[in-house]
User: Fold this.
Amino acid sequence: MAAGIERIDFHGLPALRLSTAADASAVLSLYGGQLLSWVPARGRERLYLSERARFGNGPVRGGVPVCFPQFAAQGTLPRHGFARTSVWTVAEQRTGDDFALATLRLADDPQSLALWPHPFTLELTVAIDGGRLDLELEVINSGHTPFAFTSALHTYLRVAELEECRLQGLHGFEYRDALGAGEGLRRDSGDVLLFDGPIDRHYRNVERPLLLRDDGGALGIDAEGFPDVVVWNPWEDGNARIDDMAPRDFRRMLCIEAAAIHRRIALDPSETWHGRQTLVCL
Assistant:
């Protein structure tokens, strides 16, 4: 089978389906510029997508939402900004013998300027080969005044059983516990991060790749440009308060997010910033 990119309808949303000759695939929605599926060659679905997700009516629960120009509630904008509920356009499509690549674009419009008065252009590039996924976010200041932003690729990973997962690579890095009440920075002291309760940690200046061990396999996770890492799972009580997640779905997902949230990224007019997250099946 040759590599290809086709336009599809995905639960009512316009989307692109990317596929490679090795039978890897991905689904990229124009609504939100959101990756909703990634299946590596001869593998299983690696992204969590809630069976109760709402499509085209607010944020879609799962996949890889793009948080811009604000992360979470750290500002005056809607939670995680407006990029994840905006309609993007197709800027580029390419395939080769062993890869498929698509770039989506989002630019300011009257609705975005009413919320955040800065001209901008975003480009999200998704590339897949046999066992690798690359996501790159480019931010361009297309206006005449500086602006600053926070951002993340809010990656929902599908796991077989959360309590059996082991995340390596965060030893020694500082983090803020977003579930703590006014607590300061902590330093991760464990060889591996285990999951036995709710977690919402914002790690700072993570300078090495991560390794997620799950169900006898492993997933390598690396980032460039994004200095921070968010690790999030709502656990049982939090899951029960999220109406677009099925009960006990917290056991099937883990968010490991490439982020730039500790310090805002500042761009002068015509300046550009890039951030990338790479997932590799090992």
Summary: The domain at 4-281 is CATH 2.70.98.10 (Beta-galactosidase; Chain A, domain 5). The mean pLDDT is 96. The first strand starts at residue 4 and ends at 10.
